[in-house]
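quick one, two chains, predict together pls
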Amino acid sequence: MANRVRGTGYRSRRDMLLRAGAGFGALALHGLSSQSSSASSVDGPRSAANPTGAPHVTPLAKNIIFVFLEGGPSHIDLFDPKPQLNKLAGQPLPASFGPIITPMGEYDAPLMASKRKWSRHGQSGLWFSDWIPHIAQCADDLTVIRSCWGNGLNHSNGVCQMNTGSILAGRPSLGAWVTYGLGTENTNLPAFVVIEDEAGKVINGPRNWSTAFMPAAYQGTPIGTGPEPIRYLKTPDSIGASRQHAKIQLLDEINRRYAEARPENSELEARIRSYELAFKMQTEAPEAVNFAEETQETLDLYGIDKKETEVFGRNCLLARRLVERGVRFVQLYHGAGSRWDAHTKIESNHSGLCKGSDQPVAGLIRDLKQRGLLDSTLVIWGGEFGRTPMSEKGDGRDHNPYGFTMFMAGGGVKGGQVVGSTDELGLHAVEDRLHVHDLHASILYLLGLDHWQLVYSNQGRPERATQNEGKVCRKLFA
Amino acid sequence: MSGSSCASRTSLVAFLFISSFVPATEPVSKESAQQAVIFEKTVRPLLVEHCLKCHGQEKQEGGLRLDSLNAMLRGGDSGPAIVVGDIENSLLIAAIHHDGLEMPPSGKLSEDKISALAEWISQGAHWPKVEGAIKNQSRGFSDADRSYWAFQPLAKIQVPEVTANPQADRIRTDVDRFILSKLADRRLSLAPEAGRQALARRLYFDLLGLPPTPQEMRQFLDDRDEGAYQRLVDRLLDDRRYGERWARHWLDLVRYAESDGFKQDAYRPTAYLYRDYVIQAFNDDKPYDMFVLEQLAGDEMPGATLPRLAATGFLRHWIYEYNQRDVRTQWSNILNDLTDVTGDVFLGLSVGCARCHDHKFDPLLQKDYYRLQACFAPFLPNDSVPYGSEQQLAEYRERLAHWESATSQIRNQLAELEEPPRKKVATTAIEKFPHDIRPLLRRMSDERLPLEKQIADLAFRQVTNEWNTLDFAKTLKGEDKQRWTTLRDELKKFDHLKPAAMPTMLVAGDVGNVAPPVHIPQAKSVSEAIQPESLEILGGTELMAVPSSDGKSTGRRTALANWINSPDNPLTHRVIVNRVWQYHFGNGLVANSSDFGRLGQPPTHPELLDWLAQWFLENGRSVKQLSRLLVTSAVYRQASHHPAATTYARSDEHNRMLWRFPARRLDAEQIRDAMLAAAGQMDEQVGGPAEAHTSYRRTIYTKVMRNTPNPLLSTLDAPDGTSSVAKRSTTTTAVQALLLANSPWPIELAVKMAESIIVSASLLEQQIEVVYWRCFQRAPTDEELARAMNFLQLQAAAVASESQPSPAEKNLDEKYSLGSVPLADLCHVLMNSSEFIYID
């Protein structure tokens, strides 16, 4: 594709369209093209990686909502029942499992039984623990992947890898790659947004949604449910509407005159558009977070009527509203600040967090489904790792990146199936092992991007989202 | 990190956002990209390991070679070794199945390897295009490798003769002759000389990172003397603010940041000492070889002064995770970081691509990577050097000794009481590490081998952390607790004698004068330890390291610096002059200024590049002299608009031949600093610990936190400080617009700016004039003046009717009456304008 752009040798206006044509910059496109051309030839959204607008493969999903349970939810207490664990509880891990490294050195600690009650749900009969009764009701929409694994031993590594593919800082996040690859669908909202349940608490902070060596245009934008959903969206209260309008008017004039005298510099026109878009966003974003038009029934579906689910329920509902408005990639954090990190007292820790997230997540899936959006929206649930079958401090579990569970729903994913498995104790993924790179390759594939073709040239070096690793797991797909 | 990212030559995606567009290389399909990876990851290592010893360059058993596709197709005594796409008829497959022939004779390959070879043949036997025969460990390079431009000695270049050129009268320096001669070849010409205002503004931002003050600009415009520009150049190069701008270029390259970059992202309170060293080095115009030596080996230099130790901060900018139990992996990550960044910064080579395998495109062996890493293998971070002036340090030592002697009894008793809980904590802390590390942590220090010392040093940082959080008041019980409390209270009585702790620096050291052995990780056969040597393509000769007489250092880093600094090193000086060129002209003569390999671009002006490198060597390796040469050239002094732009763009769309000066947006730091300057609020304090994002210090003196960067800077494309950045992108986004238009900081500065103008100019026209001069360094046109007057009137009405002024505005309004808030609005509008953040 790159050579096509080059081959056609786009000149100023066309070139400019493309220069503005990625990520947030892509917002510029609609404004520009609708003004510059007749309605019949309005350009579609573009991305720099993909200027023809054509995906690499047939996309099965258009949007993605990645629910990130931060801190490492225990797969063996939620999705992956291990009867053998309860039988061997109290004993050390059999030597046959081989040595592993755990951050708190709990390798030698005795195995700890899961206290959960397990039951099968849906026509598919998938197993769920009693901590997640609402998600269990969505059984037939889920592909539960029990064989995920990664390299991140600690939160920072794990969260970094789940977001960027690498345990070390310095690579673009998956959302940035998707934005780079596909651009945006909505002209007035960012293509990649991040919703935190507690702002400023997410491990690694904005680095998780940054672009590293790619241009800043592809970075994620934090968005909240408050009166100013995007930072600095609002004109300060002290400045009235006509006063602000006059400022913007003057700025526009000054910038236009400057740009007109410098036709060879297309960045200048993109700058003018960036202000127009910023002000369109001032209307669009508050509208997206205004739930007034939602019925009580919908609010109840997400648990917004109940104290323990109100906050995350709102965030999940916001995610749906953003997807409806064409936001491409929504990263939704629950338990920001490693709250799922149950080194001690897993019973009280997980029961509280499950209560706060179970209904909102299930509500999101059901709501998307009833609105016909689930087919085009990929919902992913998971943390940076799972937890060990060995106990820690008697009533907790340590980090386990060697085997853990995630689930996917909607957008091209087969419902009601389990993919992969861990060993008899839930320590290592054994069957159909899915590394984080494989997950990323599969996610990109569902969105229509081939992880081999999605290349960004970093100072001459071809970089890929999956660092030249990763295999698409076709078992996930419908 | 870049190590895993070099699998295949593929279509480089055009990143259209970036003002300096770099054309893509040849496109390659997805399939072949994938096949290239399979070849590199599986087939190549397999052939090297199992086949080439007997079927390679040295020996050809059975007349067969397996080191190139042609050789395989040609085959040996028994016929062709492979038939592409046909496993059944490929002799090689039969042989490795021990079907007829039994290969390799030492034992059958694993099933995985057999199926990998079979798959490779059935998929078309991909062979890398840029490479003929693959290398056995000791194999030589191809002719193409050996003649690759970046590895050639600097050529002796004659300055081109351009007397016949119609623009010969424009020539100001020899640099112009090279550019003019190439322009003439392409039937292009220089743009007219830039206007003096545009030129001065360009020069100020370029050399100082700041706009000229209105007075400075007027002074220059009034100085009609022939030598005025030259004098301005000299003055700016001597200005201490020059270092504050040029250090930023270097900090981008060395991944400078002031925090750890993991979950904790702990602040590094003395990291700034390195930043101050770099600023000073640029201001002092430190010869480049000395600059390189001090950063790589300042601690090994005789009489290592504090600035030299601070220079080794270069080796301390790696990300660090304070609680990573997998110590070995973290340690190897650190060594890899040092190796990669050294290759990027000083050699302009992506050596990181050779970490796991020989480089795919460049003649860099995996062994080369570890030859470089061998220079860092004995590295040991040192956090114990206190920082202060001679006098401060002497005073500190004296006071400390006094306090120590006064309290020694108490402290001994305390230590006795604290020992058991400390031991207990250490024991549990050690048990959190993997089994293979625990025994070496329990050993006495002098019983540890060099590598074990390094691992232990890293691990014990975690133990120390746990000690630091120990609360003895809680841990001790009964009588012990009482005694401890009494003793501690007793000790407190001496607090007035105790000097405040001196900050300690982040510097480099060695583990001793013996280096741990370096081997290629996961290598099948353990070879002899890899020694510090130059790259194979540059001779592969030993770097002579002299261990220090005090037993503290191996001298390997000094040896590395000496090799880098050698005038015969073909990379070093091309790389640095190219960087300086890029900082002045937006693009390097070699576009990828940190990758002179085949993945980068060849130089647009190879003769000029070599001539400049030679010139640099002959002129004291002085960056300032080089800058002077470049900014006084006619190429630099030309306008950013060419009358024939439309025609010229057809043959040189991206202005690589420099027929006009490339206009560009300012960097994030320049924009923030320009706001402070325009508002007249710049805090002129120099150096010292970093300050908050909201401070009025120059941006280079504000905190660089890896996890929480200043959003204003990061949305304006400032680097994140995790890996080397050779060139920034320029993006334009709505988020930038929101930050500039609505966030409090620019508004606050606009109000301050208005206030500072009102106190000195009373008439509206005068005030508008000053706003224009402060922001754009020029007077408003009549039309602009009239429009601004009109704006102020409109705003006055709007403010009166509908606004609820902020406290700052209210204050302004009350102090200076109506009209001051509208003026602040005008300042704010101009600070948001393109003219404010672009240079012509």
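Strands of chain B lie at 379-382, 507-510, 664-665, 838-839.
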